[in-house]
Write a structure and sequence with these properties.
Elements (H helix, E strand, L loop, with lengths): L1 H12 L27 H19 L2 H24 L6 H20 L9 H28 L5
Helix pairs in contact: 2-3, 3-4, 4-5
């Protein structure tokens, strides 16, 4: 047992990455690289969005709340989409919620909020269900491709 641990440490120290699987929802390999190079742009966007949300809550500014939610949402969407479409970690539920919320907001702005609030669930379910199904299939395909690739030397 102890010799196996030493061997694993030696392999990791030699620059080989260890590929582990934890079912279909765990992580495999290393986190995908950011499209912005070494700059953590998405993380800065998430932080700036949270700061704007807090400022909007404290001062009562509706514009700061909206801008903070949008900026934070864009940063979160970029990180989750990158991890999801590379097969690193599944974010099907969250990514399917993005177009569902956009459709819901458009529905509420165009048609108005109905007196029966449960009617707001109809466009949400109609959009979220198929998006979740497609995103789940896409993730499974990306995960399969990630597992089939040999580890980097």
């Amino acid at each position: 047992m102890a010799s196996n641990r030493r061997q694993e440490r030696a392999e990791r120290g030699a620059g080989q990455r260890k590929v582990t699987t934890q079912g279909t929802t765990g992580t495999v390999g290393e986190r995908p690289a950011s499209p912005f190079g070494g700059l953590p742009i998405s993380e800065f966007a998430i932080f700036a969005g949270i700061v704007a949300l807090v400022v909007g809550l404290i001062t009562g500014g509706h514009a700061a709340l909206v801008v903070g939610a949008v900026v934070c949402g864009l940063g979160v969407t970029e990180v989750t989409a990158r991890e999801h479409f590379s097969g690193f970690r599944s974010h099907s539920t969250l990514l399917a919620a993005v177009p569902a919320v956009v459709v819901e907001v458009a529905f509420a702005l165009i048609a108005g909020v109905p007196a029966q609030r449960t009617l707001l669930l109809l466009p949400l379910i109609v959009v979220w269900g198929p998006c979740f199904w497609l995103l789940r299939r896409t993730f499974q395909s990306a995960r399969h491709a990630r597992l089939a690739r040999p580890p980097a030397p």
